[in-house]
Amino acid sequence: MELPHSFPHVPPDGYCYRTDQFKPGYLSIWIGNYFPFSYTQDSPVYSIWGFYNVKKKKYFSPVNSKTIGKEVDICLTTPYTSMQILKPLRPSVLSFVS
Q1: Has this prediction a pTM greater than 0.70?
Q2: 2 contacts 19 by C-beta, under 8 angstroms
Q3: Which residue has the higher pLDDT, 29 or 40?
Q4: Where exactly are the structural domains of the chain?
Q5: Does the pLDDT value for residue 63 go beyond 60?
Q6: Which whole-number Å values give the CA distances from 70 to 42, 63, 64, 93, in the listed order?
Q7: What angle do CA 20, 73, 83 make, to 5 degrees?
Q8: Do residues 34 and 43 make contact, with C-beta atoms less than 8 angstroms apart?
Q9: Assign residue 57 a region: left if phi > 0, alpha if psi is -120 to 50, beta otherwise?
Q10: Which of 12, 78, 81, 96 to pair with 88, CA 20 to 30 A apart?
Q11: How far is 48 from 46, CA to CA, in rounded Å?
Q12: What is the DSSP string of 19-62?
């Protein structure tokens, strides 16, 4: 299966995309990583990128690889994931002090 025509991302170096029929009317979009992992010899290793509703032409973030989450604006996604960062990550020692 092909990626939707509206999918704007190009896989980063060392990555690829794959789509599968998830359930009627939905595609699952997977990102494959060709870098070596210590726990497997399989290559590429795939992670869920998100889901696509074929009829409504809408994208959804994943809760996990078997559960569709909330609708997302494709313009706010990255080549690596459709999940949104809810608040900026600012690692700091003060984050761990009560």
Answers
A1: yes
A2: yes
A3: 29
A4: 15-96
A5: yes
A6: 31, 8, 12, 32
A7: 65
A8: yes
A9: left
A10: 12
A11: 7
A12: EEEEETTEEEEEEEE-S-BTTB--SSEEEEEEEEETTTTEEEEE
